[in-house]
């Protein structure tokens, strides 16, 4: 089995959300359901100096994330019907909507917020790595759409050889929980201390 995963070059992501919009369009999801999300992280303060003037330690960055098709997916373990499986051939985690009964246990279990619950269909779904496009030789829409080339995909082993082993940045849950198949080049302000 070749496990595929995502590479996110957070250091160049500008937060345009083209990846999120393209994913939403491809999957025809309703308002509030986003299989790929782009988060903005802002922190710091402005400080008035006793001698006059203002000094700041303000920082911000963006981060694009979807399902990480984890090595140890807690969504699979939480599903009471077996609707969520990890494919043997590529490690992609999928939800069979025919089997899903909408318990939302996967939604509660996933530390990354990947499974999304649809209140109209009473079922959960999530990023399936655009398997349908990959089978036609095309890239996932998030990869194809990013104007800066900040998202790549491929064999996680090859991505780690090329970009390193960072799979967690400031504000993310511990990578030890699920062992995500994700590699990140962090923004300078997002590095874990």
Report on this structure.
With 193 residues, the protein is of the alpha+beta class. Helix content is 20%, strand content 24%. It has six helices and eleven strands. A three-stranded mixed beta sheet has the order 10-1-11. A hairpin with a 5-residue loop joins β3 and β4. The longest helix is centred in the first third of the chain and has 10 residues. It is globular, with a radius of gyration of 18 Å. The model has no long low-confidence stretch (mean pLDDT 95).
Based on Cα principal axes, name the global outline: globular
Instruction: Tell me the quaternary state.
Output: single chain
How many DSSP H or I helices? 6
Quote the beta fraction.
15-25%
Q: How many strands appear in the DSSP assignment?
A: 11
Helix-residue proportion: 10-25%
Enumerate the strands of the largest sheet in spatial order, edge to edge or round the barrel.
Answer: 10-1-11
Structural class: alpha+beta
User: For the report, how would you describe the main beta sheet?
Assistant: 3 strands, mixed
The rounded Rg comes to 18 Å
Low-pLDDT segments: none
Mean pLDDT: 95
* Secondary-structure element series: EHEEEEHEEHEEHHEHE
> End-to-end span in angstroms?
34 Å
